[in-house]
Write a structure and sequence with these properties.
36% of the residues lie in helices and 30% in strands. With 292 residues, it is an alpha+beta fold. The protein has a five-stranded antiparallel beta sheet with strand order 10-11-2-1-12, with helices on both faces. A hairpin with a 2-residue loop joins strand 6 and strand 7.
């Protein structure tokens, strides 16, 4: 089953909503980064959140980068989303030890840490990108995204994320939702949402039960109802190319490229976002030197 997200609005017009099934893209990201279970759960939540946040921007050719530095063993998580919600990312330390809150429940907060920040960089195709940053509150990522929107963008938000890692360390299900109150939302709308969030519970049991993103939003929004405005397939998607890698190598400068060429061996360059390896022969590097 392909991953997809749905975006919409509550029928009273006071709540923006988005929900996603991200199982396959999280599986792909974990496979590329070779993550252990705790890192898979943390990285998968970041990929899921970034996909929804990128799609919510609705800026053609725009992008959104989500970076989480919590001081935990996973190091830094960096995820980039395009305007559709396709994502790519990497973690600095994918092989983190197993830490559980209780048997069967991975402790994502301990893996990410809480002594750090969540940073959002929005490329809105303007002169300068928008950069917002807030301190982490739990390292669980969903809570941190919620706090980021409230503090940095002044938007009351509820974000729930879930990644269920199976006993064989594969990703069983992944997904989440984001709800945002618009100005003027009445107290009745707020109360209905709060009750719906409590009633729905965690994301992964809903996904494991076969619920779709539409079902999840229906469960959470309850009597408010939802008008769906967009459905978009999303995936783990990298935009690397040999031409881009050539530009990076050229930026190293003449001296370093000359050293690489004089070693007389093929020079492999692996994309940090995907498992593509670009190999440059000494002759290839000589051609790059001509371009400087």
């Amino acid at each position: 089953m392909k991953d997809y997200l749905v975006r919409g609005m509550s029928m009273d017009g006071f709540v923006k909503v988005v929900a996603i099934r991200s199982t396959e893209l999280v599986r792909r990201g974990a496979e590329i980064q070779k993550t252990t279970p705790n890192a898979t759960a943390a990285f998968g939540r970041a990929l899921t959140a970034a996909s929804m946040m990128g799609n919510m921007q609705k800026v053609e050719n725009g992008s959104m980068t989500l970076q989480i530095r919590g001081g935990g063993p996973i190091g830094t998580i960096t995820v980039v989303s395009d305007a559709e919600g396709n994502v790519r990312g990497y973690v600095t330390e994918p092989q983190v030890p197993l830490v559980e809150k209780y048997p069967g429940k991975l402790d994502v907060g301990a893996t990410v840490g809480t002594n750090g920040t969540i940073t959002v960089i929005r490329d809105l195709q303007m002169k300068e990108p928008y950069i917002g940053s807030t301190e982490l509150v739990s390292g669980e990522i969903g809570d941190d995204v919620t706090a980021y929107f409230a503090q940095s963008e002044q938007i009351p938000t509820a974000c729930a994320l879930g990644v269920l890692v199976d006993r064989d360390t594969s990703v069983k299900v992944a997904g989440g939702y984001i709800l945002q109150l618009l100005p003027g939302a009445p107290e009745e709308t707020v109360s209905t949402l709060e009750a719906g969030i409590q009633r729905a519970g965690a994301v992964t049991p809903m996904l494991e039960a076969g619920m779709t993103p539409e079902d999840i939003l229906g469960q959470v929004c309850g009597s408010l109802g939802v008008v769906f405005l967009e459905t978009a397939e999303v995936s783990y998607k990298c935009y690397c190319s040999r031409e881009r890698v050539e530009s990076v190598l050229i930026s190293l400068g003449r001296e370093e490229l000359t050293q690489i060429m004089e070693e007389g061996k093929p020079f492999p360059v692996e994309c940090q976002f995907c498992d593509t390896v670009y190999t440059f022969t000494p002759e290839d590097v000589a051609e790059l030197l001509k371009k400087i």
